[in-house]
Amino acid sequence: MIQLIKGFKDIVPGEIELWQHIEQMAVELFETFGYHEIRIPIMEKTQLFARSIGEDTDIVEKEMYTFPDSKGDLITLRPEATASIVRAYIQHKMYAGDPRRKFYMVGPMFRRERPQKGRYRQFYQIDLEAFGIASPYIDTQQIHILHLLFQRLGIKDCRTHINSLGCPECRPRYRELLLEMLNSVQGKLCSDCCRRKDRNPLRVLDCKVPSCREAVANAPELSDHLCRPCRDHFNSVLSGLDHLKAPYILDKRLVRGLDYYTRTAFEIQTSALGAQSAIAGGGRYDGLIETLGGPPTPAIGFAIGFDRLAEIMSQLSKSSQTGSVQPGQVDLFIAALGDLAQDDAFKWLSALCEKGIRAEMDYTGRSLKAQMKQADRLNAKKVLIVGETELESGKGILRDMSSKQQQEIGLDDIVLTIPQIFQT
Ligand code: HAM
Prior knowledge:
- This protein is α+β, with helices and mostly antiparallel strands.
- The protein is built from 16 helices and 16 strands.
- It binds histidyl-adenosine monophosphate.
- The site of histidyl-adenosine monophosphate (HAM) has 25 residues, from β6, β10, β11 and α12.
């Protein structure tokens, strides 16, 4: 048997309903806040991700699915959505007129990481981005949106970590300080960090290797070296959160794994998923649109790890038996016995589905017992039983599956009466 690729997974009926529920809640909320859906390709030119996420990041160095197409051009399965949305914004000149645009997208991403609970090679993100708004209000608002969504989904075990990563004004000065410090502990750094530190010393702060973590324990903090405008911006974001009573943890060590961030960076963390603690992450990236060839345009966004969110929700519904999402219920199951009844059942089913009734039948003509079992499994509300006798008399049996009561029902106008029954 051909198995699926390691780190990839199926989301099957029974699970998918929870995903649909989460997506629906997210989309509803995002639309309320003025965000609109955008769809972007699964693949892009490799350069797009290398230039935006950063050559020295784990994602670009080790995790991208990159391959040459038949002409030898390098293409990459998207590891995230931000770069593509920025590309689309520039390509379609969406900045013309009013540069303020708000987008969301939901879809699969690909990173060749070591698979484990909560970490997959194909995973899904719910992504939200706002372009053209420099105001700290929007930083506060995006964190608020995340809080609202988690609240509505009933997720309590989560904390918002927040930091400021400065800007091209203040970061270079900090960079020098950090590099000096890193050079003094060089012997303790892993080979990746030794290689990366001169070009991109901030990456060392994001390294998960224990010896590196120890080596940088006393490193200077970026947030202590912000320029005045960055400090004012950050303070406004925090007071906005205080105002909205949205709790957060100031986390001076939060640098995020992608290079494009400036100023506000945040992550929602949980203890529910073991090692994979981040269920969402994002921040400002005021320089990226310009770097990729657009006009200077501030931007901010976040992505939620959909798989991780669904896992937490499914744990919750198992432990509390509340909030579980049932598979879509079948309204009417038609249990037809014999070829003639099957023919009629198929006609009725087609007409009823056209009218919006969720009808289902057994297409193979098994025994009544087997068909009733199937109706049970599908969680059908009612079952219409039709055999030779019923066809002759023109009256079928309609069974209510919760009350177990049965009644006769005329078959001639069944396509009219069944929708009426479900309307009342
Ligand atoms: P990120 O932190 O790389 O940010 O990913 C966001 C979220 O995606 C993570 O917090 C995590 O929940 C989920 N995630 C990442 N990798 C995996 C994986 N291998 N398996 C399962 N879930 C995963 C970004 O991608 C940025 N583009 C976010 C952003 C949008 N920043 C600004 N706008």
